[in-house]
Fold these 3 entries.
Entry 1:
Amino acid sequence: MEDWDRLVETWTATLKAVDRLGGHTNLASAKRAGITHSKIWGLNILPPAHAADIQSVEAQLGISLPAALAQVFLQCASSIDFLWQLPHDFPLPEAFRGIFSGGLSLSLGSLRDHELSRREWVQTCFPDPDSPYDAVWHNKLAVIEVRNGDYIGIDLGDGHHGEVVYLSHDDGEGHGYVLGADFADFLRRWTPLGCPGPEDWQWLAFTSGRTSMLKSDGDVADQWRKTLGLERP
C-alpha cells in the first residue's frame, strides 16, 4: 500500500487527540480508570510477514487470502493493534453517543482461529445458505474479531469477492453491511475516522445503507473529527 505511512500517521494522530481529551491510550491510564478488558493499548505494529507465512495460513484454511489482505500482511505489517477509549464522562453528541472507543486488531497469526470460529458459527447457528440472514455468514473469511462475538469478514463469493462485510451473530443492525470494496479500501475509509468500533452500532453513523460503505468524507465524518479534535487527513 503506497499510503501505508499516512495510515500510521493518522492512527498516531488519533491517539494524540484522545490523549488531549483525557482519554486512555496506554495500559497505565486504562488501569487507573478501572478498564481491564485489554492489555494492549495505543499502537503496536509488527514487521511484515513472509510469503511462506501466508502460504502456511492458506494451507491450513484451504483457501487463498484475498489479494488486498495479503498485500497488507506482506508489505505493511503481520500484526496491527490499535486501541483507544474516551473518558467515561466525555460529553459526546447524540449522533455519536455509542462511540466511546475505537481500534483495530488484525493479525495473520490469529486469522486461522477467527476463520475456524466463523465456520463453527455457520455449522451450528447459520447453516442455511438460502436464508437471507444465514447467507451473510457463508463464503466469507473472518478477519477481525469483535468482542461481542461478531466478525468483520471478507467476501469470497463471485461478484463481491474481496468486499469487507460485517457478520453479526445476534441480529445486529449492521449485519451484512459492506464496509469497503476490499481490505485496503476498508482501511482507507475507517482510519480517517479513528477506527470507531468495531461493533456495528459504533460505525453505523458513517453509513447510509447496506452498500454505502464507510463514509470518511462529508458532514457527519467532519463533525465526528471535530468532536475528537482530529484534523482531516
Entry 2:
Amino acid sequence: MTTPATSLAALVLAGLVLIAVFANVIAPSDPSAQNLLLRFSPPTSPGHWLGTDSLGRDVLSRLIAGSRISLSVGVVAVLISGVLGTSVGIVAGYFGGLLDQVLMRLADIQLAFPSILLALAILAVLGPGFLNVLLVLGITGWVAYARVIRAQVLSLREREYVLAARALGAGHAEILLRHILPNAVAPLIVIATLQVASVIIAEASLDYLGVGVPVQTVTWGGMLNDGQLYLGTAWWLAVCPGLAIMLTVLSVNLVGDAVRDALDPRIRKV
C-alpha cells in the first residue's frame, strides 16, 4: 500500500530526474559564471534565489548542474555493481565447489575493508575523474548482490522446473538466464533501489574530500567542501547542497522501502 510519504518521495525523485535531464534549460544562469561584485549575495537576492558563492556564482544554478553528477553516478554505479555482483553470485551458486569458495572468499576479503577507504585508496592510484569515480563505486558495491543472488541460486537450482529443464537437455546458460535469474531478480531490485542512496552519499563524500570528480565540475559534494569555509558568514553555501543531498537520499530510501514491501511477500500487507 502506497503511503503519502512514499508518493511524495516518488514525486520528488521524478522532479529531480527532470531537473537533471533539463539542467541546461532550467538553470537561471551559467553555473560557472563569476561576478565578484555579487559575491556572497544572500538568498532571495534579485536574480539569485539561493544567493551566490565566494566568486559570485549562482548557487541555484550550481545545485541544478550538480544534480546531474549525483544522480548519474548513483544510477550508473549501481548498474555496474548489479551486473558484476549478479554475474559472480549466479556463477558461484550454480556451479558451487572450488569456484564458489574462491569467489566468496574474494567477497569476504573486500568486506573486510570499509568501502569509503577502499574507494579512497583506488582513487589515489587512478586519480580523480568522473569515469574513475563510476568504476570505483561500481566495483566496491558488488558484494551485496553476489551474496544475495548466490543464496537464491542455491535454492532455485534444485527446484523441479530446473531439474526438468536439465533433463530435457537445456544448457547451463539457458537454465541460468531463462529459469533461475528471472525468479531471483526481485531481491536484487530492492538492493539496487536502496544502494542508489548509499552511492550518492559516497560520491558526495569523495567530492568533499577532493578525490572524486575534478573540482572544475559542479557537484554537491564539492559545493559542501567550498561552503564549509564560510559557515559563519554565508551559511547557504553549505546548507543548500546539504539539504539537496538529504532530500535526494531520503526520497530514494522511501521509494526503496516501498519497492521492498511490494516485492517481498513476507511483509506485504494484505
Entry 3:
Amino acid sequence: MTETTGDTPQDIPATLLEAALVHVPFDGWSEATFRAAIRDAGIDPVVAQAVVPRGALDLAMLYHERADAEMRRRLNAEPMMGLKIREKITRAVRTRIEVIDDKEAVRRATTLFALPHHAGEGARMLWSTADQIWEAAGDTSRDVNWYTKRATLSGVYSATVLYWLGDDSHANQATWEFLDRRIEDVMRIEKAKAQMRDNPVLKRVFAGPSWVLGRIKAPNRAPRSDVPGRWSGPT
C-alpha cells in the first residue's frame, strides 16, 4: 500500500470512484471493489473508510449524483425555452441517459439498489433525478402536483433505463422510441386529469379530496451543488 495521495478529504471520494470503476464490471459495487480502489488509488485505508464510510455503496451513489450534475450542466448549456413540456422532459431524460459513460456500472448499480436493505437509497436517488429533470423543465408547482409529477417521472425514467440496459439497437433508437411511448402515456393521464377538473359533476364529487390534496405543499430544499465529482458524503 502506498501512502495517501495529496487529495483533500473532499477529493478522495472522486479519486476512489475513478479507481473503482475499473473493477465494477467484474466485482460489482462490492467490498472487493472498494478495497481494490483503495489499493489502486494509494489511499490510506483508515482515511478512505472515514471519508467514504459505506464503501462501494457510497461510491455508487456518487456515480449517480455525478451523472445528475453532468445532466444539469448540459441542459443549462442549451436552454429549453420554446419547447413544449413533453419535449423538455423527453430531452432531459435522454440527456440523463446519454451522460452515462459506463453501462455496466449502471447495470451493477441497478442490482445493488434492488437489494431490500439498499432500496431506500435507490428510491431517494431516483426521486432526486426526477426532481432535477422537472426543475430543468421549469416546473413551478408547489402543491400536490410537485409530488405526482416526480412520482410519475420516476417510473418513466426507471423503466427507460431498464429498457436501455438491454438495448442493442443503433444509437439506442429503440430506447428513444420506448421513451416516447412512456411520455405519451403520461400525457394521456394529464389530459384525463384536466378533463376531470373541467367536468362539473366529477368536480363536485372530488371537491373534498381535492381540497385535502390542495393543502399539501412541496418541501423546502437546500441549494444544490453543481460541481461534478465532488461530494460531501451521505446525508
